[in-house]
Write a structure and sequence with these properties.
This protein has 388 residues and is mostly helical. The protein has a single domain, classed as Growth Hormone, Chain: A. α9 packs parallel to α15 and α12 runs antiparallel to α17. The protein starts with 5 loop residues before the first helix and ends with a helix.
């Protein structure tokens, strides 16, 4: 078994501290919106949808630009830096539209950094170990989420509904992540020096990545309409009886499972086939949706969040490795950017529609709708696996 390369280890620690910062905020943000700012389910859906769509639009642009100048680190640094600056501003918000603006800027940072960072991970690992490399990164990312949610729990247990204090303190681990990039992250560059105004070597829209690539993206776009924002799962758990100060703990349980399984699932995809592992994850998501539709007790919520963690370990790891395998290193960031963009753009209507169905018809119908979409995506991926 090969060792994890140093570059991937550094990026893992950067994601660890960034997620400590982010996950101090994310599990309690839906409750803050609903209970403090009196936001509707539809407005929460709009916030999450706009946030993901924003990040996605920039992922394709940053990926393409990164390929043109043959550099990854400047995008990684600026993306993580912007997110670190704006997230603590949530402590000052008084309306859901202000939260929308801050989430927008935070996701701008994510959009700038994600594709170049994923390309740097893929470039630093041989293909036979690529699933394991992405699994390691997702594991570190999720370990940070575990620490962040535990900090949020401790602060809320100490002072009930101290949402704004938690938001402000999130600046500290974010600053550590940026410092790691500045001081320790190195990338191997070939002959080409940094040039911020390059002569394009390829028009992005002329890229032809092959039928397998586009078929995979089509499947994942459909699946995105079922792979809804974490916010809806948290609000459903709250409805089932999980009190506000315990929400970070149930989210931490989810992340513990996610962290424990991300690397094993990535390694499994190296041996068993990426499509087979992803197919299993989509099937499991369909069961999760049905479970949340039928759930009636607190115990159900805890068990379903355990299951949710296992699913995320597949869904957030395997598609990145699949895309990386299908495209050569010269255009890898562009391909990852296109994947993230098209899938992420679907998040805006997906979150809006899901929130609207919940608001008009109730949570049970909304989650049943998600289960049907999972079945469609499962069938598409099954055909993809048979064809390729």
């Amino acid at each position: 078994m090969l060792k994890i390369p140093r570059t991937i280890k550094i990026l893992g620690w950067v994601s660890f501290f960034t997620d400590v910062s982010s996950e101090m905020i994310l599990p309690i943000l839906p409750l803050f919106l609903k209970k403090v700012l009196q936001s509707t389910m539809t407005s929460i859906g709009i916030i999450e949808g706009v946030a993901e769509a924003t990040a996605s639009l920039l992922k394709v642009a940053s990926g393409w630009w990164s390929d043109q100048i043959n550099r990854r680190k400047p995008f990684v640094l600026s993306g993580y830096g912007l997110s670190t600056l704006v997230k603590p501003l949530l402590a000052l918000t008084t309306s859901w539209t202000q939260v929308l603006g801050i989430r927008f800027l935070d996701r701008v940072g994510k959009g700038i950094r994600t594709s170049p960072r994923d390309a740097l991970i893929a470039d630093s690992a041989v293909q036979a170990q690529r699933g394991r490399a992405f699994g390691f990164h997702r594991m570190m990312d999720t370990m940070g989420a575990i620490v962040g949610t535990f900090i949020a729990f401790c602060l809320l247990a100490w002072k009930i509904e101290a949402y704004r204090m938690v938001f402000a303190l999130s600046a500290v681990p974010g600053a550590v992540a940026v410092a790691l990039i500045l001081l320790f992250l190195r990338e191997k560059t070939t002959e080409k020096p940094l040039n911020l105004n390059p002569t394009p070597k390829t028009n992005f829209f002329k890229f032809k990545f092959g039928h397998q690539f586009y078929f995979l993206i089509g499947i994942m776009v459909v699946f995105t309409f079922a792979n809804i924002s974490y916010a809806f799962f948290i609000l459903r758990a709250n409805d089932l009886g999980i009190t506000a100060y315990l929400i970070p703990i149930i989210y931490m349980v989810y992340n513990l499972v996610y962290a424990a399984l991300a690397m094993p699932f990535g390694s499994l995809s190296d041996k068993w086939g990426r499509a087979n592992v992803l197919l299993t994850g989509i099937f499991m998501m369909g069961l999760l949706m049905l479970g949340f539709s039928l759930a009636t007790t607190v115990i159900h919520a805890w068990l379903l969040f355990l299951f949710y963690g296992a699913i995320s370990a597949v869904i957030e790891t395997i598609p990145r490795a699949m895309v990386s395998d299908l495209v050569g290193s010269e255009h890898r960031a562009s391909a990852l950017g296109m994947y993230h963009t098209l899938v992420g753009l679907a998040a805006l209507p997906a979150s809006f529609v899901f929130g609207l169905i919940w608001q008009k018809l109730g949570a049970q119908v909304a989650f049943q709708y998600g289960a049907i979409l999972c079945a469609i995506a499962f069938l598409g991926l099954f055909l993809y696996r048979r064809k390729y």
